[in-house]
């Protein structure tokens, strides 16, 4: 995987093979950040990266100037890798090792963008818990956005607060406001 834009543009990051991850493709990531670039100044926002895996999305935000990034993942190896990579690049990424659903239940901090990349094999009920908890606990700032990455075979359009979706190959981003 590589960082698409910003201070670390073009830098390649190679995650250990033993991590249980499926990084967002460069094509999908570029499309997503084109959308976000038209809506936000990256140095003025707070980002919560859920099911952060390799930290791919967090690194992209950090490279573009975002200073308030929190990455949450349940896997120790993922958190360790994000910490090591963030230290190597001198990125300010706060990591939390936690089950995402438990984290969302307890969290009180608001964010401008919440990005969630859960396992693609989640059923719609599991996917629905993400926006349900985010909006119930008021975790988005005004003008905030929840983005859930999923397979193009999963339809989240019936969920509360759904706004629209964008597809990039086999990847789909659903936006909730």
- Oligomerization: single chain
**What would CATH call the homologous superfamily?**
Vaccinia Virus protein VP39
Shape: globular
Q: In CATH, what is the class? A: Alpha Beta
Strand element count: 7
Poorly predicted sequence stretches spanning 5 or more consecutive residues: none
User: How can the largest sheet be summarized?
Assistant: 7 strands, mixed
CATH fold naming? Rossmann fold
Order of SSEs, N→C?
HEHEHEHEHEEE
Task: Tell me roughly what share of residues is in helical segments.
Answer: 25-40%
> Would you tell me the overall average pLDDT?
95
Structure notes:
- This protein is an alpha/beta fold and 177 residues long.
- The chain has one domain (41-176): Rossmann fold, CATH 3.40.50.
- It has five helices and seven strands.
- It has helices at residues 26-37, 56-63, 76-89, 100-106, 124-136, and strands at residues 46-50, 68-73, 93-97, 111-116, 140-151, 162-168, 171-176.
- A seven-stranded mixed β-sheet has the order 3-2-1-4-5-7-6, with helices on both faces.
- The radius of gyration is 15 Å and the shape is globular.
Task: Please give a handful of descriptors for the protein shown.
177 residues; alpha/beta; Rossmann fold; seven-stranded mixed sheet; 7 strands; 27% strand; globular; methyltransferase activity; methyltransferase; RsmD family RNA methyltransferase; DNA_methylase_N6_adenine_CS
